[in-house]
Amino acid sequence: MILRFFSAAALFLIACLPGHAFETRATAAWVYDVTTHTVLMDKNGEASLPPASMSKLMTVNMLFEALKDGRVTMDTTFAVSAHAVSFTEAGGSTMYLQQGDRPTVQELIHGMIINSGNDACVVVAEGLAGTEAAFAEQMTERARALGLTESTFANASGWPDPGQRMSMKDLGLLSVRLIEEFPDLYPVFGQTEFNYKNRAPANAHNRNPLLALNIGADGLKTGHTQEAGYGMVGSVKQGERRIVFAISGMTSDTERAEEAERIATWAFRQFALKTVVKAGAQVAQAAVFMGDADTVGLVPAQDVKLLIPALAQDGLQAQVVYTGPLEAPIAKGAEVAQLVITVPGLPEHRVALLAEADVAKGGFMKRLTTAALKLRAEYIGTPAS
């Protein structure tokens, strides 16, 4: 059976509710606290939408993976095709590549991220897969493998196409991957300027509006098409905490910049990171069957850190859950229970609880006493014939 115990200590330490709900102007938004793995906002987060240039993050991911597994190096050069150059001529964001150029992987990374170059994305696609169409198929296949369930790709750049779709949740999860899996490459997202061969000083600046605000922003990507409106995937780190957010459907670049800052401010000001239980602190005791001790202490292996909403009210619960009684022998450090903490308005938080000490099997007298008590209970509980 499942036994549920309330820990008074944990309840005392966590006594808050989320702040007032944030009303975003975005048509779709997903906000995630990376440090505690907590979804702070989900407004149409799983809707499959045109991602515009934000889908370049998947092209960047594919190139980062190629670097990581050694298929290319930073000094590898790619050819620039007429197809790639055609995107400069068609308008939109560009790195201003020309046929005959041999940009390096390092230059193309900067061109995709800082200049949002459609031409750079096509060069990468053709350099890795031969054609942009083949690369788009690989992008879709890789997205599925990464759990990006609402992502399909028709091209490498985010150029408008009915087959180019991503959800805000997928964009957020992909951003977390870029941050955590490629720590040596990710800092490019925070760079503010790149001007390939000094061809376009006016297009050399990173479009991320948060980078100049000194709020800890270090990525990731803006996007805009007539169909998608103005969108952005952002990341901000302050102290121990990092948030990632993805928004879509803004009506202007000014509104996008304002909404991105509002979301970052809300995420950091309405929630505080607190240590609610220290590593090794006994949360509860679990009953033990046939052991040389009747109970064993339950402790977390690491500090339990949670986001605590700014407004303190009643309504939060903490439970210790295990199947019991636990049967001896029990090894110290074995995972035997879970601490389940529920904050209204946020997903429940589960923490593994470990046995605080070894519990050996009881000796002969312990087993005899236990058997006698069990027989007595069965006898007393048997109705008369």
Write structural notes for this entry:
The chain is of the alpha+beta class and 385 residues long. The strands form 3 sheets. The chain has a 7-stranded mixed β-sheet. A hairpin with a 6-residue loop joins strand 13 and strand 14. Helix 5 crosses helix 6. Its EC number is 3.4.16.4.
Order of strands, main sheet, comes to 1-11-13-14-9-8-12
Count the strands? 14
- Kindly report the oligomeric state of this protein: single chain
The largest sheet is: 7 strands, mixed
Q: Approximately how much beta-strand content do the residues carry?
A: 15-25%
What is the rounded distance between the termini?
Answer: 30 Å
Give a brief outline of the structure.
The protein is elongated, with a radius of gyration of 27 Å.
Task: Itemize the secondary structure elements and their pairings.
Elements: E1 2-6, H1 8-13, E2 28-33, E3 38-43, H2 56-68, H3 82-89, H4 105-113, H5 118-129, H6 132-145, H7 168-181, E4 217-225, E5 229-238, E6 241-250, H8 253-269, E7 271-277, E8 284-289, E9 295-300, E10 304-309, E11 317-323, E12 326-327, E13 335-342, E14 349-355, H9 364-380
Parallel strand pairs: 8-12
Antiparallel strand pairs: 1-11, 2-3, 2-6, 4-5, 5-6, 7-10, 8-9, 9-14, 11-13, 13-14
Helix pairs in contact: 2-4, 2-5, 2-7, 3-5, 4-5, 5-6
EC number: 3.4.16.4
InterPro entries: Beta-lactam/transpept-like, Peniciliin-bd_prot_C_sf, Peptidase_S11, Peptidase_S11_C, Peptidase_S11_C_sf, Peptidase_S11_N
Enzyme class: hydrolase
